[in-house]
Amino acid sequence: MEPNFELTTNTKTVLGVKLFQIKAKQDIPSKGVKKGDLGGWVEKEKTSSGEAVVYGDAWVYGDACVSGEAVVSGEARVYGNAWVSGNAWVSGEAVVSGDAWVYGEARVSGNAWVYGEARVYGEAVVYGKARVSGKARVYGEARVSGKAVVYGKASVSA
User: Fold this and answer.
1) Which of 90, 97, 88, 63 is nearest to 76 (CA)?
2) Closest CA to 89 of 62, 48, 123
3) Are 59 and 31 in contact (CB under 8 A)?
4) What percent of the chain has pLDDT over 90?
5) Cα dihedral across residues 32, 37, 40, 45: positive or negative
6) From residue 61, how far is each of 13, 50, 128, 136, 157 by CA, in Å?
7) Interval 95-140: pLDDT, tens
8) Does 1 have pLDDT greater than 90?
9) Distance (Å, whole) CA 75 – CA 37
10) Residue 71: what pLDDT?
11) Nearest CA-CA partner of 80 in 133, 44, 145
12) Are 126 and 132 in contact (CB under 8 A)?
């Protein structure tokens, strides 16, 4: 899949990673994005395997960042100060927002939400209509699915 954005010349460095602000190459009506709108920040257009970093009707907004080999696809949204990195994948209608981080080999998909200061990492998977929020941590090989809610300072690992 081709990226739905192009890199602008606007840059910033966060945690030692140079990031470029994105600009929509096309309208994304489901996200309220018009061609030419500025979005969030990415390290590059494609992963080393050639996968677009953001594609489909997915979008990265505001100060949110995507780096490494991470991918945001489908109808997913990443916004706020959220960070998706490593080999993480956010897909489906998933949302990563606030100050949340999804990294490592983690996957967030379906209608799942990761928000607040939550962290999902390692090989953890959050999917279905699951919610991970607050300062919660989901890591290792943990699976959070269905309508499960992990919040506060809870930690889930496997």
Assistant:
1) 90
2) 123
3) yes
4) 93
5) positive
6) 17, 23, 23, 23, 30
7) 999 999 999 999 999 999 999 999 999 999 999 999 999 999 999 9
8) no
9) 17
10) 98
11) 133
12) yes
Residue in the structure block whose two tokens are 């309220």: 32
Distance CA 108, CA 110 (A): 7
- Measure the CA–CA gap between 145 and 149, rounded to whole angstroms: 9
Strand, coil or helix: what is 29?
helix
Q: What is the dihedral of CA 71, 134, 39, 6, to 10 degrees?
A: -10
Residue 131 tokens read as 């919610």
What are the tokens at 41? Answer: 């920040």
